[in-house]
Amino acid sequence: DASDIEKGTYPHFMLKEIDEQPLVIRNIIAKYRNEEGEIELSQDIRDAILASDRIYIIAAGTSYHAGLIGKQFIERFAKIPVEVHVASEFSYNMPLLSENPFFIYISQSGETADSRAVLVQTNEMGYKALTITNVPGSTLSREADYTLLLHAGPEIAVASTKAYTAQLAVLAILSADIAYSKGLEIGFDLTQELGIIASAMEALCGDKEEMEQIAREYLATTRNCFFIGRSLDFYVGLEGALKLKEISYIQAEGFAGGELKHGTIALIENGTPVIALATQEYVNLGIRGNVKEVVARGANPCIISMEGLEMEGDRYVLPAVNEALTPLVSVIPLQLISYYAALHRECDVDKPRNLAKSVTVE
Ligand code: G6P
Question: Does residue 267 line the site of ligand 1, with CB under 6 A?
Fold first, then answer.
């Protein structure tokens, strides 16, 4: 029950939940490891996924953004094609399905009506489904064939933080497990890398003064803000923009670096904040080029890069983690910057206007 959960010494649930992320990741490693210390999911889930030729991820909001990254994990590690769909669109705009589809519903609450409506449909069609949720016994969990829990503890703040990184960790674990059961190598030890990620998260959560400073510097009075990135960084930018919109009411949008020139760059004015993520070596030069393009039009750039890829003028450098898993770490400063931007602007951080924690009507 939400009313039993205490904020403790924290001024807001959101800040508490941001800080809980290293613990949640460690908890997830422990829950999904077998006695030999290896990642292991139930054979039922494996068999169902291995029997399918295409995975359809259905979700809304932040969970949809986790799904976009989950697609990258599954395709890269397990080599199964994945489509990601916004639940509310899927029901009346259903794509042509493959011969043996498998459905993954991602939902923190397990109660989102838009997602449930699709699950009812795919159940009627006789397709197997897995729900990835934080709430055992939730509607989506009960109505799907399989469930993977996030083990993140109750999330109270409307803006989702720890559930997002927990979703990414569980999706990475699922992808690795399917890869192993197909005899594929993923090229690194996932439990070890998740441990490194938990430590990196801790370091970032310990750097709040810097995040507050960035928020004050870039977002105290701005009307809008853009997030740019390429590849995985693009998807994290979408989530960063959503966080900022939800709690600070700043008009924020995330864009793929290369797509800027096809329209959005028209919006850049003198002083427009542009938060650029640079955590992927193979697109580092590309995103740096995009930063130059917006700076030439007057933008105020805030480059968040990763150790090893940093360049002069970067505003913040993230501790190095495995390149395939950077979203688990790069989202933390975006969560914190949004939090402090909302504080500066005196917004109700935990209960933003017009939003509900879970939307149980279609
Ligand atoms: C609501 C919340 C969002 C959340 C979305 C999906 O709109 O305000 O923060 O991402 O629902 O929720 P779910 O529980 O399905 O992940």
Answer: no
| E strands in the chain | 54-59, 82-86, 101-107, 129-133, 146-149, 224-229, 251-256, 273-278, 300-306, 316-318
The overall longest dimension of the chain from CA atoms, in Å, is 57
- Active site includes 245? no
The answer, yes or no, to whether ipTM is higher than 0.95 is yes
Q: Ligand 1 within 6 A of 63 CB?
A: yes
Q: Is the CB–ligand 1 distance for residue 134 below 6 Å?
A: no
The tens digit of pLDDT for each residue in 57-91 reads 999 999 999 999 999 999 999 999 999 999 999 98
Which residue from 57, 68, 109 has its CB within 8 A of the most atoms of ligand 1, so it is best to mutate? 109
Q: What is the pLDDT of residues 297-328, one digit of tens each?
A: 999 999 999 999 999 999 999 999 999 999 99
Pocket of ligand 1, candidates 155, 357, 361, 362: which has the most ligand atoms within 8 Å of its Cβ, to mutate?
357
